[in-house]
From TrEMBL:
Organism, scientific name: Kibdelosporangium lantanae
Name of the featured protein: DUF6928 family protein
Domain of life of the native organism: Bacteria
Length: 129
């Protein structure tokens, strides 16, 4: 499992083997480390060791950044280590070329729009929607 949220500087990832959680991490710049279960994976070690410091871009802040790295930077490496590709990072020669992966698209249609409108009117009790 992998999730990142750039607005919150948040990263969550998990790894299970044979139905058992092996590694779970959940962190954000606002909430700090929420979950840190299991031994860090190899790709994490340089981040926790401070080898990827946060680039403040010259901005000084009253509060220091809560981690020795940016969660989204480690999140990109988590994507590579767990799934074989990155989204915003720099692709490596062995990464999966995501532009070459074909996916199916689906469109959901309402088979009976007039019935749906009648149900919505019933639910709203005739009040404007």
């Amino acid at each position: 499992m992998h999730a990142m949220h750039s607005f919150a500087d948040a990263l969550m990832f998990g790894l299970w083997e044979d139905g058992q959680a092996v590694r779970l991490v959940s962190m954000s710049s606002r909430d700090g480390i929420v979950t840190d279960f299991g031994e860090p994976l190899d790709f994490e070690l340089p981040f926790w060791a401070g080898e990827h410091p946060v680039d403040t871009g010259g901005w000084s802040t009253a509060e220091p950044y809560p981690f020795p790295f940016h969660p989204l930077s480690m999140g990109e490496e988590a994507l590579r280590a767990l799934f074989g590709f990155v989204i915003e990072g720099f692709p490596q020669p062995d990464d999966i070329d995501t532009t070459a992966v074909r996916v199916h698209g689906f469109q959901v249609r309402n088979p009976n729009p007039s019935r749906t409108e009648a149900l919505l009117d019933d639910l709203s009790g005739g009040r404007p929607r």
